[in-house]
UniProtKB/TrEMBL annotation:
This is Riboflavin biosynthesis protein. One of its GO terms (molecular function) is FMN adenylyltransferase activity. Pathway: Cofactor biosynthesis; FAD biosynthesis; FAD from FMN: step 1/1; Cofactor biosynthesis; FMN biosynthesis; FMN from riboflavin (ATP route): step 1/1. GO terms for biological process: FAD biosynthetic process; FMN biosynthetic process; riboflavin biosynthetic process. It comes from the Bacteria.
Length: 333
């Protein structure tokens, strides 16, 4: 699937952005004898630590007049390796968008298993880094591992292979207080502010707005019921202040493209109403005129307001929603 910022395979600046890229597509923007500066990783969250690596790769590319290429590997699917896929902080389209925004000329998001079958470190360095990407420099974090399902290659092995296949290796120090695992742990407890400090921006989830029970509309607070992809890292149940944004995605309605509203967000099962599955719902403050069904949206979490509570009456629930809306207004103004 190709998801450029503007139609075709390139965005308005000539950058290539590909999701679900097959092996034959990697480095397609590297022409003839041209070489590249490459960074490789999962980059889930594209957090502050990832950005240090990415920004250094782009800087080296600019210094040397080479193309900057990011190869982003997806985690194995749950069906392929049960239990191996953690909750996803950023989907492939968003990951490519964030990395492109850092200045890469090409971003290839590669599904699990799309690389050379069973490629160990040596084969990966030769067939991917040297031959396909024509790497002059490979920039990675100091804890980088690669090569096959057991990831048996480390930075020192990569340096040795670089000597053999004519590419340099530069490492970027690890940020001790930042990791995708730590961010997921913060989200499990609902601490979206701590997660944002590690990400360098608010955590967001994306999905398509679908029809729900429409109870929010009946209460005077119509919500967008967001159907998120499987394995999305959703914060703990509760009520949050944040934002609702319409995100343009191919083959989906482009209503309200790029618009962003402060939003009161509910995550959970709505305990006042029994038998409701877990949902993510966002009420755009002061907007009861939005028609968002079928639209791809992003929900960003700024702060947790409270946990979920079962109310004894609808009136008590409405009073609390009014208080949540005013708290959201203060926090997002």
């Amino acid at each position: 699937m190709i998801v450029p910022s503007v139609g075709g395979n390139a965005d308005a600046h000539g950058r290539l952005v590909r999701v679900d890229a097959g092996t034959s597509e990697w480095g397609r923007g590297v022409q003839g004898s041209e070489r590249s500066v490459v960074t490789i990783g999962v980059f889930d969250g594209v957090h502050r630590g990832h950005r240090r690596v990415a920004e250094r790769a782009v800087a080296v590319a600019r210094e040397r007049g080479l193309r900057a290429v990011a190869v982003v590997f997806e985690r194995p699917d749950e069906a392929v390796r049960p239990g191996a896929r953690p909750q996803v902080l950023t989907g492939p389209r968003r990951r490519a968008e964030l990395l492109t925004g850092l200045g890469f000329d090409e971003v290839d998001v590669v599904p699990f298993g799309a690389g050379p079958p069973g490629a160990g470190p040596g084969e990966f360095a030769q067939s991917v880094l040297a031959e396909r990407l024509r790497a002059a420099v490979v920039v990675v974090g100091e804890r980088f591992t690669f090569g096959g399902q057991d990831a048996s290659g480390d930075v020192e092995i990569l340096r040795t292979l670089g000597d053999k296949y004519d590419f340099e290796v530069e490492t970027v120090p690890h940020l001790d207080d930042v990791s995708a695992t730590s961010i997921r742990e913060r989200l499990v407890t609902g601490d979206v502010e701590a997660a944002a400090r590690q990400l360098g921006r608010p955590h967001r989830v994306e999905g398509v707005v679908v029809r729900g029970y429409q109870r929010g509309r009946q209460l005077g607070f119509p919500t967008a019921n967001v159907e998120t992809p499987q394995h999305t890292a959703i914060p703990a149940d509760g009520v949050y202040a944040g934002w609702l944004e319409c995100v343009p995605v191919a083959n989906l309605p482009a209503l309200y493209e790029g618009e962003r509203w402060p939003a009161a967000i509910s995550v959970g099962t709505n305990p006042t109403f029994e038998g409701v599955p877990r949902t993510v719902e966002a009420y755009a403050l002061d907007r009861d005129d939005l028609e968002l069904y079928g639209v791809h949206v992003a929900v960003e979490f700024a702060a947790r307001l409270r946990g979920n509570t079962r109310f004894d009456s609808i009136e008590a629930l409405i009073d609390q929603i009014h208080a949540d809306v005013e708290a959201t207004r203060r926090l997002t103004s």
